[in-house]
Structures are given as structure tokens and as C-alpha cells.
Design goal:
By secondary structure, the chain is of the alpha+beta class. It has one domain: Methane Monooxygenase Hydroxylase, Chain G, domain 1 (Up-down Bundle), CATH 1.20.58. The protein is about 45% helix and about 15% strand. A three-stranded antiparallel β-sheet has the order 4-3-5. The chain is elongated and about 75 Å long.
């Protein structure tokens, strides 16, 4: 996505305001906490080149350097940078939660799978993994879409029948994307019921006015 930011910079008392366009990769949101957290999820990598003086990153060896062929789990954001350079530094493998065995389980019955246990940002990380030139990329893309579609109706139905009760147990198996959808479903049902009872168009006193009136009453009582 491309985003345009307005910048204001001061030099020796003068202010210059301008704009520049910053191109962010698809499916990345600079201002999203969820995007930051999902980008920090670790993915299995193999170093294709020796990396000097970083042997301490591998707790299984006492070598000073990382040898070619070393396998480590790196945060997605770092793996992506090292994998997409002109000179390939690491190759990335799919995490266990996205491999064929797990995809088969999702295909069999996605509704019963504990997606949060597989990863709190399952869909977000899965979409990010599509940026790698992997042989299973097409199958992964299809699996993510089918799993989301198969679980979507159940999530919305459940959210609209339980919007006044505790939802902890109902959302325990949902990933963060699905939990947001669950909240949207609850709010939609609450708004609909308010509309049916004629409460949606009532004008309520502003909290600022209420607080002001309360302060005045307190002053009079004193």
C-alpha cells in the first residue's frame, strides 16, 4: 500500500511543510499494533551464507560465526529482509502450523480447530508468508481462504446469539482477526435491537454537560 505523510520540519526559525510518499509492502500497516505483533512471530530459516561474529544467536553451538546451513527461528520481519535481498542470505520454511498436515486438518473441519493455539495472528502471519517464493504458496493461500470462509458464518452466528453473556469461552479458539469479527457481530446485534425498541435515535445528554451540571450541584450544596 502507498501512504502519503505530511511532514513539518523547522530550520533556524523557519518552518517548511511538505509531503512524501512512503510505499509499504502489501498487507502491512505501519500504524497497526496487530501488524507489528504478527510480524514479530518467528519462522524457521536456514542460512545460505556464513554470517560472521553472530554465532551467539545459535545456542546449540559455541562457534563464533553462523555457518552456512545453520537453522534458526527468526522474526518474520527479519527473515523477510534477509530472504528478499539480491543475494539470498536465508531461505524460509513454512512454520508447522501452516504445513500440509495442519492444512489437511483445517480442510477436514476448520470449525473445530483451535486457531489461537496455532497462532494468535494465524491469518495475518499466513498472508505474510505468501510473500516468499515457496512451492506450497498456492496451497497455503487456498487453505487460508477456505478456513476463513468455513469459520466465518459460525463466528457471526455465535456472536449474535451471545452478545449479552460472557464470551471468554466462545472466543478462546479464535485468532485475533476472528475475535474482532466476533465483536463486530455483537455490536451489530445490539444496534439492531436498539433500533427495534426505538432507542437508536434518542438524543442523550453529553457526558461533558452531565459532569458540568454535577459540579454545579456540588458547589451549590457546599
Amino acid at each position: 500500500m502507498s501512504s502519503t505523510y505530511q511532514t513539518s520540519v523547522s530550520f533556524s526559525g523557519s518552518s517548511h511543510t511538505g509531503s512524501y510518499t512512503s510505499s509499504l509492502p502489501p498487507n502491512e500497516d505501519y500504524f497497526s499494533i496487530d501488524d507489528i505483533l504478527s510480524s514479530d512471530q518467528r519462522v524457521p530459516c536456514q542460512f545460505e551464507l556464513p554470517i560472521y561474529r553472530l554465532g551467539f544467536l545459535d545456542p546449540s553451538t559455541s562457534n563464533e560465526h553462523l555457518e552456512s546451513g545453520t537453522k534458526l527461528e527468526l522474526p518474520f520481519w527479519l527473515a523477510k529482509v534477509l530472504c528478499t535481498r539480491k543475494k539470498l542470505i536465508v531461505s524460509v520454511e513454512l512454520p508447522k502450523a501452516f504445513r500440509e498436515g495442519q492444512r489437511d486438518i483445517l480442510s477436514a473441519d476448520a470449525k473445530v480447530v483451535d486457531l489461537y493455539k496455532l497462532g494468535p495472528f494465524y491469518y495475518s502471519l499466513g498472508v505474510k508468508l505468501l510473500c516468499f517464493d515457496h512451492l506450497e504458496r498456492g496451497d497455503l493461500s487456498k487453505s487460508l481462504l477456505e478456513a476463513f470462509l468455513n469459520r466465518f458464518r459460525l463466528i457471526m452466528d455465535t456472536s449474535q446469539h451471545a452478545y449479552q453473556s460472557s464470551t471468554t469461552a466462545l472466543t478462546a479458539k479464535l485468532d485475533e482477526t476472528e475475535r474482532k469479527l466476533f465483536v463486530v457481530g455483537q455490536k451489530a446485534m445490539a444496534d439492531f435491537e436498539n433500533w427495534e425498541r426505538g432507542l437508536s435515535h434518542k438524543i442523550h445528554t453529553s457526558s461533558i454537560v452531565r459532569n458540568s451540571r454535577k459540579r454545579k450541584r456540588d458547589e451549590v450544596e457546599k
